[in-house]
Design a protein that fits this description.
The protein has 238 residues and is α/β, with parallel strands linked by helices. 31% of the residues lie in helices and 26% in strands.
Length: 238
């Protein structure tokens, strides 16, 4: 790992009085055969830059649908979503792809690491896809040390514990300095010890780097690590 000019870019300055995530009247309807299933029913949501917010709810509450729309992975039926001041409804598919490369980082329950690559290569490939230098600088090496994985960079996923794999996934999600980190059940496959480690690391990223984090979880204990918890039920925010 060679050290060059800073790769982990600072978060962009906020627009005056504008939330980093702004959702208005969001509706999502899925057409399943002859049946319409309304996953989101007029959701309104504001998240301030630098917040750590958890969204909780049972299966079918709409939280995963909301996650996918906020990440530009799917489009709403109606309503608007603005990410870092950008209206997603006005973006082309290519622009939404760029949003995912540069503005939003993703952490998933199943890690999604490529098994044939080392931990370092799994992180570097994200920079390569974004067209950025793949070498890590001193600032990002500090993040790897904070995550406790700097010494595991040359191991492949099969040689890593579940907790280590999730920490690699977190490093991969933030290596391009995204404005927002979206985490979908990041402790769902972990035991209680590793869950606590990962949740404390997310809180450290929020407090030390000012990283805006939106975490989807069904676990009230995990949700308690956030500044604010939002409850969803039947496609609505309670």
């Amino acid at each position: 790992m060679n050290n060059q000019a800073s790769n982990l870019e600072p978060l962009k300055a906020p627009l005056a009085n504008q939330p980093i995530i702004q959702v208005r009247s969001l509706v999502k309807t899925f057409h399943i055969g002859e049946v319409d299933v309304q996953a989101l029913r007029g959701v309104d949501l504001d998240i301030t830059r630098g917040e750590f917010v958890s969204i909780v709810g049972t299966s079918g509450s709409g939280k995963s649908t909301l996650f996918n729309i906020l990440g530009g992975l799917t489009s709403p039926t109606s309503g608007t979503v603005s990410i870092n001041g950008i209206d997603l409804s006005k973006m082309t598919p290519a622009q939404r792809n760029d949003l995912r490369k540069h503005q939003v980082g993703f952490v998933f329950q199943k890690y999604n690491l490529l098994p044939t690559l080392t931990a370092e290569q799994n992180i570097q490939i994200v920079r390569d896809i974004a067209g950025r230098p793949v070498d890590f600088d001193d600032k990002f090496l500090e993040v790897l040390n904070m995550l406790g994985i700097a010494h595991r960079m040359h191991h492949k996923p099969r040689a890593l514990s579940g907790g280590e794999q999730q920490r690699i996934a977190i490093a991969r999600a933030i290596v391009n300095g995204p404005a927002i980190l979206l985490a979908d059940e990041p402790t769902g496959n972990l035991d209680s010890k590793n869950s606590d480690i990962v949740l404390n690391l997310l809180r450290d990223l929020n407090e030390r780097l000012g990283q805006t984090i939106l975490m989807i979880t069904h676990n009230p204990e995990a949700a308690a690590y956030a500044h604010r918890t939002i409850q969803m039920k039947d496609g609505k925010i309670l």
